[in-house]
């Protein structure tokens, strides 16, 4: 098999990703052992509510190489969605108005990101030698399979996990989408460069109107407004209305 420069390919992947509209691209290995332990503890507490799909698929969610055998690296991408002229604090002060989440204002992000990830995967494929063993076997995911995208994003350097369990980036907060490409190519991995900056702050926990956080870094989805208005198929409990 013809040899090629993996470090140059990694640099090219970051460049291509930005050209396709991703604000950040990172590469990580597939070790999610710590995240797997936390996931199992969280499921055991029943915090996933009726989202039984989170407990399905065995360990494929936390073991990328079991979901797609042969996977060695995950290319994680970040795409920002907050409009530049949005005054997110000011607009939420009026209690007489309800606001639709900012990410719904544009096209379906699943289709948008998946198309761009597919183009990135094709660019990677085109850069490989013709005799490369796994040429053409990269696979893109956008909420389309059991993938632990937030732990992967953190390992790839896209941000850190806040006490509200979301990924925070020092430049844009949590206003972004995530997507992944699973690849068989042994690319050099990126070192996380977004240290946890939460410190002693607990603002995100205190502001939650349904008190959905039993403790920092842990969400009881059954009390979460997103769960109650999207995932919950029954009537919302009266205490949360």
Give a description of the structure.
This protein is α+β, with helices and mostly antiparallel strands. The protein has one domain (6-194). It is 28% helix and 12% strand. It has 7 helices and 6 strands. The strands form 2 sheets. A 4-stranded antiparallel beta sheet has the order 1-2-6-3, with helices on both faces. The longest helix is centred in the middle third of the chain and has 19 residues, at 109-127. The radius of gyration is 19 Å and the shape is globular. The mean pLDDT is 91.
Radius of gyration: 19 Å
Q: Order of strands across the widest beta sheet?
A: 1-2-6-3
Distance linking N and C termini = 62 Å
Largest sheet: 4 strands, antiparallel
Helix fraction by DSSP (H/I, runs of at least 4)? 25-40%
The count of strands amounts to 6
Low-confidence stretches: none
- The class by helix and strand makeup works out as alpha+beta
Query: What is the overall pLDDT average?
Result: 91
Give me some keywords for this one.
241 residues; alpha+beta; 4-stranded antiparallel sheet; two-stranded antiparallel sheet; 7 helices
Compact overview of the structure:
The chain has seven helices and six strands, in the order αβααβαβαβββαα.
Secondary structure topology:
Blueprint (H helix, E strand, L loop, with lengths): L5 H14 L4 E5 L4 H12 L19 H4 L5 E8 L28 H19 L11 E3 L7 H7 L4 E2 L5 E2 L7 E8 L19 H4 L18 H7 L10
